[in-house]
Write a structure and sequence with these properties.
Distance between the termini: 83 Å
Number of strands: 16
Number of helices: 28
Strand order of the largest sheet: 8-7-4-5-6-9-10
Structural class: alpha/beta
Length: 714
Amino acid sequence: MRNEADVFADLGALCRSEGYVHALANLSFRDNIVRYSGNMSPKDMLPMFSPDRLIRTEISTLIGLMIQSDMNWAMPSPEVVQEQMDRTDSLLKELHETFLPSMSGALAEPAKAPAEDLELLGRGKFLREVIFYGGESAYTFQYRDLAPQEYAEDDAWLKANREFSIFDARTVAESIARLQEQKLMAVVAHMATSPPEQWSILPGYTFTVREVAAASGLAEPTVEAVLNAIALAPGEKNEAFRAVDDFNVANATPLLRFNDEFVLFHSYGLVEALYESPFYWMLADRPYAATAMQNRGRFTETFCRDRLELVFGKARVHTNVDIFESKARRVGEIDVLVFFGDRAVIVQAKSKRLTLESRKGNDGRIRDDFKKSVQDSYDQGLICAQKITGPKVKLVGFDGREIPVPGRLTEIYILCVVADHYPSLHFQTHQFLKYTQTERIQPPMVLDVFTLDAITEMLSSPLRFLSFINRRVGYTERLMAQHETVILSYHLKKNLWLENDVDLLMLGDDISVDLDIAMAVRRDGVNGQPTPDGILTRLSSTAVGRIITAIETRPDPGVIDFGFLLLAMSEKATIEASTGIDRAAQMARRDGETHDLSLGFDSPNRGFTVHCSTDPVDRAEARLRRHCEVRKYSQKAKTWFGVCLHPSDQSLRFGFKLDYDWQPNARLERLTHDTPRPANLRQAIEASTKRSKIGRNDSCPCGSGRKYKKCHGQ
């Protein structure tokens, strides 16, 4: 196997060969265009996950090598173009393979950091491959739409120094994408009637200032200012680009110039530059650099706040919360804090990026970057999580008002959010993050703003959001994926759940295809399904789905856990439980008596009883509580939930939770001695709903062994 430098040199020579730009245009069209008719389906999108497809970092590498010399735009013969494409595929495959000896060599090298502090897979020579080939965490439209939010406070600087607004830049980027779609379709149609020697997809990637101005409605000088800001400067050669992880000017300036036209091979590169480059322009302005840094930090916090407010409402979301143990002693600061029932979410946001030296595989810099971006964020969040439950602690918001803390927080979640795409973030978190877990403080979730955006978009209700976070952090050591969005997509389709005998579940990137389409439909105007077929579509109209919705409108601590239990049930269990509840409600409407359903689960060791009753609340609650005590004892469960529904519309009347360790009890033992335990869910439903009318001298259906009139018939 040849070494990386030799392969990279051959690839550079190929990219600088005569007319290579036409081969590059063909490769970009082949690997970046999703072809579909009508509504986009997963089948249409799946080719984007083919291992033979060139990823964005590879195409950027080709562009970066191509611009190292004066470009030759002459059109070669179709045979030459095909040879260039085939040779490109071959060399890029070989280039990827050259990473393997470096990874193998790491096995034999002594660790440069203490052995106990540097696991093998955390070494730079391993991470270098993951960083380059790991793909992107942001969608094109997220970069495009978040850029105006990121630089809104810097708009005056952009107008004064670059002669355009960030909102103008967004409009230009969107207009170029639509314009290129039209031009590419027109070029393909023209090629169908042209001889092969005239085939070139390159014209579909070119555009003029006038064309973009007409498409966007902006003045030509404004459009030209935007394009010039993110276009390769005339005469610039990208000479420092000597390895895949060197600085590549094609990433910062993805637009190329050809006479009076501009060329863009990858719309992703344009919006990524729009999101990232302005920050570096401002840093170069020394008097303004500090302001730019402050604005960037505020953007991350504000974005997290806004997204969480969409889920929990403004009243439950607080920003810049100071924690005081006394008037003079501040012990912590929370960027964003959410209280929902007896749950708390602490968000700590950072704007630190992965440096160029880290991308090169420098062990020390990789760890230093991770510490500043993630570990420090988590450590701050942990201190805050430990402090907010203290007896003398006072929480004060940014406006100086005190924020009341719920009486007893049962779970606290820490979200560590970074502002940018952080290559191999999920993998590095597995390798490097040191965290503490207690009964109350859960393992942290590390994500970027783009993932938070997707989660809050798809799980826009408090219970569904918290249920996903609860299970996601519960499987911290047992789940592996390239990006958190893959896990989110799996959850939306399958309802995230791992059996106890599953040590590790690895999810492939293609699992995200359903989420990718849904987000594109919602944000980019693509025709398709706005919600993946799964937990959000199949069960919303069931009795269980209605209970979940009701719980979200009244977040009592006693029923939030019940909501988590319902959301964790399989589709089959949900449908069958809903059938049982529907039957119980129907019989209660028919005879005016109380009817019920009880279900128990071995893992976790808990269960619930649902009563459909019109009795006064005090009587109905006493009856339900007795029933739950009996059922909890008979199944030796630690936790049991009781819920009362109104038979007419199955609306939630009240609910509670019995939560204590099982202990022998003579009275309950007598009551449950002969109680049969349903063998499965269907039998439980039938046992609870088989009678249309219960006589006062009949056995109570709760399984106590007592007559109905002396038990739940009282």
